[in-house]
Amino acid sequence: MPTPTFPLMIGDQELRAIGHVAAQWAHLEVQIDAITQILCNQPSVLESGLRQEQSFKKRMANLRKAASIALRDHEPVRVEIEQIANEASSLRGLRDEIVHGCWRYVETNREKNGIPQVGTGVDLIRQYPSFRSRTRPITAERAETIACKISELNFRLVMWSVANIPTAPQNNG
After folding, report:
1. Residue 92 has what pLDDT?
2. What is the pTM of this model?
3. Residue 171 and residue 144: Cα distance in Å, rounded?
4. 61: helix, coil or strand?
5. How many CA atoms, within 13 angstroms, populate the side-chain half-sphere of residue 123?
6. What is the pLDDT of residue 91?
7. Residue among 168, 123, 167, 162 at smallest CA distance from 31
8. Which burial class, exposed, middle or buried, applies to 40 when counting CB atoms under 10 A from its CB (0-12, 13-18, 19+)?
9. Cα angle at 96 between 130 and 10, to 5 degrees?
């Protein structure tokens, strides 16, 4: 197996956790896009001019709007997809920190025998509207917990889709 020329200063557990978060999130976004596309192609929604967007915030707004139009006569179904959209939006910030932050070892507030202990953290840099930098302590276990929350949301979204989006008729010929 090849070795990185510039190894990151974190362990395999952190790398694995970052991968789990990224993979679960990618699956979630694909499911959201598919459901949004199906809702946007409903006759009642077509005239609204909604289309696929790049930014997550706009994509979620389109999902909510398409659901409010297409599912206006199906209140429980609409409320459920909106709850899923709200939970996805609330997990996005944590996902962004885990995937886009710069992971490294950081000194913690704990000491053992007078020696500061080391943990992992994520450096977060924002350049817009003004430059800001901060370090957030985070562990592989915490990142795995976020991956599990995204996984649970994936499951709920898939189950919502199975229960509420009819499949095309099967060709048995």
Report:
1. 96
2. 0.86
3. 42
4. helix
5. 11
6. 97
7. 162
8. buried
9. 105
Per DSSP, helices labelled H in the chain are 12-40, 43-46, 56-70, 75-100, 140-164
Q: How far is CA 86 from CA 24, 48, 53, 79, in A?
A: 17, 22, 17, 10
**pLDDT tens by residue, 40-55:** 999 999 888 887 788 9
Tokens 């699956």 locate to 27
* Contact by Cβ (8 Å): 91, 146: yes
User: Distance between CA 155 and CA 99 in Å, rounded?
Assistant: 21
Phi, psi of 99 (to 5 degrees): -85, -35
* DSSP, res 171: -
Q: How many CB atoms lie within 10 A of CB 10?
A: 18
Instruction: Indicate the burial class of 84 (C-beta count within 10 angstroms; 0-12, 13-18, 19 or more).
Output: buried
- What's the confidence (pLDDT) of residue 167? 67
Location of structure tokens 């996984």? 151
Measured between alpha carbons, how far is 81 from 38 in angstroms, rounded to an integer? Answer: 13
